[in-house]
Amino acid sequence: MKNYYKLALERHGQWRGKVKVDLACPLENHDDLSVAYTPGVAEPCRKIQINPLEAYKYTWKNNIVAIISDGTAVLGLGDIGPEAALPVMEGKAMLFKRFAGVNAVPVVLDTKDTEEIIKVVKAIAPTYGGINLEDISSPRCVEIERRLIDELDIPVFHDDQHGTAIVATAALINSFRITGKDPADCVAVVSGAGAAGSSIVKMIKELGIGDIYCFDSKGVLSSKNYEGYNFVKREILSITNKKDEDLTLREAMARADIFIGVSSAGIVDADMIKSMKKDPVVLAMANPEPEIGYNEAVKAGARIVGTGRSDFPNQINNVLAFPGLFKGALECGATKITEEMKMAAATGLAYFVKDEDLNEEHIIPEVFEEGIAEMVAEKVKDCAIRSGHIRGM
Fold first, then answer.
1. Closest by alpha carbon to 67, among 29, 32, 95, 45?
2. Cβ distance 346 to 166 under 8 Å?
3. What one-character-per-residue DSSP string does 80-135 give?
């Protein structure tokens, strides 16, 4: 088995970065220089001065995203700081370009202050067509995203929240296609009450799931602990645990059709899977080690199992969502990414898997299947145009 940690260190040292800036125009002679730079460049500057929206016509603003992080919640590593987070942000930029043709620039910030991050992002926003927030700790990331959505006129999206939720929702849609269950009759257990968990709860509630129990590290979210919850957990509580019960994770699992994990490794065992209702669906997405291993969950009787890993079937991978989401938003001039756009992306991803290809080990498209980003982009564009969330409307 390859040692990917060792290989990554060697290759990153060779690459000296995974993305670069390249020229989009010719620069071979004095005429080229006069058109692209002085004196010719003055004319598009004048046009943009009169109407700032002309920047979308005359500059890279039509196809450029800033990837913003403070390095406080890097997947599997935690609070490692801005410089150490930079390889991950470069990787994100690489995925944008490879899968959707969207240019992206990593921007790591040497501050953890919520107000300062908002101020900095607003100050640099004129350069970019969209903002992708990445690896910022909860609940700060939720507040930062909401404020920026309200205060900017370009799409702002926190992928750790919504990318995970979109792909998990697509996986559930296809699970229902296989099992024939009605979402309204189903009970879901969500382990993890941070940024990703909150977005998942909201999306699967919108999908029509009958009842949801959400757990943090201390237990099920319930009114008895309300005073100790941050605003994200209070919002989750308002739409979960409708009978306000005080259950353990094991007790809740015995009632569940669905388990979704964005929490910690090894917290679910085989007996808990065996206790679930007929044809259980298990999306154990903790990384790098899931709440229960793929093989263990299958052996225990789970009909459908997904993880965050690429070495097992049904990888719940955000790259299925965010490149196409931004591609569509940029192409149609969307001013924001709405809940309707997210659900449209999830539904599109689900039905990208044709009936004849759908099975327990293929409930979600493979990352390298052609046409995924283009399909998601079209769904997002249609939704943005119908809702009127585009420039000029």
1. 95
2. yes
3. --HHHHHHHHHHHHHHHHHHH--EEEEEE-S---HHHHHHHHHHHGGG-SEEEE-S
The secondary element (H helix, E strand) that includes residue 181 is none
Gyration radius (Cα) of the chain, Å = 22
Quick one: angle between helices 322-332 and 159-179, nearest 10? Answer: 110
Distance CA 159, CA 224 (A): 31
- Nearest-angstrom CA–CA distance, 358 and 365: 10
The residue behind tokens 């991978």 is 317
The torsion angles phi and psi of 213, rounded to 5 degrees, stand at -110, 125
State mean pLDDT over 147-158: 97
At 392 the pLDDT is 65
Structure tokens at 375: 């399909």
| Tens-digit pLDDT profile for residues 37-49 | 999 999 999 999 9
Which tens digits make up the pLDDT trace of 287-344?
A: 888 999 999 999 999 999 999 988 899 999 999 999 999 999 999 999 999 999 999 9
- Residue 4 pLDDT grade (very low, low, confident, very high; cuts 50, 70, 90): confident
Helix axes 339-352, 159-179, angle to 10 degrees: 50
What pLDDT digit, counting tens, does each position of 201-228 carry?
999 999 999 999 999 999 999 999 999 9
User: 72-82 burial, b for 16+ CB within 10 Å, e for fewer?
Assistant: bbbeeeeeeeb
| 128 φψ region: left (φ > 0), alpha (ψ -120 to 50), beta (else) | beta
Cα–Cα separations (whole angstroms), residue 289 to 4, 268, 272, 317: 16, 12, 18, 15
- Just list the catalytic residues: 37, 92
